[in-house]
Each structure stands twice: as C-alpha cells, then as structure tokens.
Amino acid sequence: MATSAQNPSRVPAPAELDGATLRQAFGAYPTGVVAIGALRGNEPVGFAASSFVSISLEPPMAAVSVARTSTTWPLLAEAPVLGLSVLSHGQGALCRRLASRNGNRFDGVSWQATPDGAVLIGDAALWLTARVNAVYDGGDHEIVLMELLTAELFSGVEPLVFHTSQFRELIPHG
Ligand SMILES: Cc1cc2nc3c(=O)[nH]c(=O)nc-3n(C[C@H](O)[C@H](O)[C@H](O)COP(=O)(O)O)c2cc1C
User: Using a 6 Å cutoff on CB, does residue 82 contact ligand 1?
Assistant: First the structure.
C-alpha cells in the first residue's frame, strides 16, 4: 500500500471528524474576539465571540455565529442596536469574564452605552455598532448577519488573538 512517505503528493486519509477533532481544527484557525453587548433596561448584557467575520463592504455587513444554547443571545436579539468591541491585547482575562457563566460579566469591566443602547468596551481596538439583518441556520449555531452602522477605529491599539484556546498577541513578521 502506498504511504505518504513513498508518494508525498498524497496525504493520509483524514482523521474521523469527531467532536474533539473538530474543536481542535476550528481552534487552529486564529481569530480576534469581539464583545457583543447591548443595554437591557439600564444593565449591560453581552458575551464574547470569536466567530465574527467581515461579509460585505456595500452594504456594510458582518456576521457572527451564535450557539443555539446561548442564554444571552435571545436578550441581545431584542436590542435595536448592538455594540461590537474588538478586544485588544491584554484583554484576555476580560474576555474570559465576558464569556463566564457565573456572576455579573460586566463587574469590573469598563464599558459605555451609546444613546441607542449599544454597549461598547473600554480600551478596545475597534468599536462597531450594528443592527441584526437576518438569521440563518448554522447547525447547532445560528449565523447572525448584521448591518454595520458605525465604526470607530483606535489605530495603534493591537488586537487580542485567540488560537488553540489561548490568547496571544500579534508579532510583526519579517
Ligand atoms: C474566546 C471565546 C470565543 C467565543 N466565541 C463564541 C462564538 O463565536 N459564539 C458563541 O455562541 N459563543 C462563543 N463563546 C462563548 C460565549 O462567550 C458564552 O460563554 C456563551 O454564549 C455562553 O453564555 P450565554 O449562555 O450567556 O450566552 C466564546 C467564548 C470565548 C471565551
């Protein structure tokens, strides 16, 4: 039987795609992290999401994939405008806090609300505000397509990077 060593153009049969392998595979793809937040009454609600992806320039659109098990998303989905804060390097602990299942996620977190109730995180690398445009089936997640309304870029603020379940920083290459 031919092996990949004898025939380097052939890769071995891929490993079975069980849940653990797939989690590792997705984790091998580096991403940033956004905090998605909105006011509910006077209180901020939100969570951290690494699935943020840019979609369209005209019209301006982005998307995020949200677990169907999320208890926070149904609250955010009712908000007229969402805040998306691209977390900056050094905000790893804050990110974990914004994903935690215990306690008030916003305790000790610097945040502010826009007049239309979008919640934005202090010292982030980028602020966006957005309106939900459509929600599509994404298996055990929902794909939330958003129309982007505003952007405020804090140039020079390095983003947080999430890779293999760890927070990392960008290093200039070359
Ligand atoms: C780095 C990181 C990235 C995450 N990305 C997502 C994501 O893209 N989509 C998602 O639904 N949950 C994501 N989560 C989990 C949520 O932040 C949150 O823990 C989850 O929604 C459960 O809380 P909830 O029931 O309040 O929604 C992520 C968590 C971490 C730490």
Answer: no
